Task: structure prediction
Amino acid sequence: LNQSIQKLSMSEERTFIAVKPDGVQRGLVSNIIGRFEQRGYKLVGIKLVQASQELLAQHYAEHVGKPFYPKMADFMASGPIVAMCWEGKNVVKQGRVMLGATNPAESAPGTIRGDFGIDLGRNVCHGSDSVESATREIGLWFKPEELVNWESNSAKWIYE
Ligand code: GDP
Ligand code: MG
Result:
């Protein structure tokens, strides 16, 4: 299963990217998708999810029990989330760079959070922080059959 989520070729690394309820409410979905698309990453999974507390507790297992967790989880369950799986060379690390720092106050302009966010608890988007987290999160949010293996015709214009 893990091997089907994280393929072996380096250019085919996968990450989990989500537009949080604030990003959906504010109409930022197409902008965020567009940034990954225009960069050259390949979309292999996408759906709109109303997340349950159970799913969020698994997704944010490292944060359960922290003082900010209950409000953060309620916020994440307050509306639809766009769950996505993106594929490409170094996409886990580069995806985090594209998101910007966790706190939008520290995110550089040009990043998603730096362009669209002000407060820590309304930082618009999520991205896996490591290849291991990505594998875990993709497995949590997507069934294997919801991920599509397809060949991009522009790959040769993106990768040398
Ligand atoms: P991320 O991986 O960059 O999203 O950051 P973390 O994994 O550290 O935290 C997960 C999410 O919880 C962040 O994106 C924030 O929205 C929220 N969060 C993290 N730390 C705090 C905090 O101290 N207070 C509040 N209110 N929210 C936080
Ligand atoms: Mg995190």
Q: What stands out?
A: The chain has a mean pLDDT of 95. The beta strands are 14-19, 42-49, 81-87, 125-127. The radius of gyration is 15 Å.
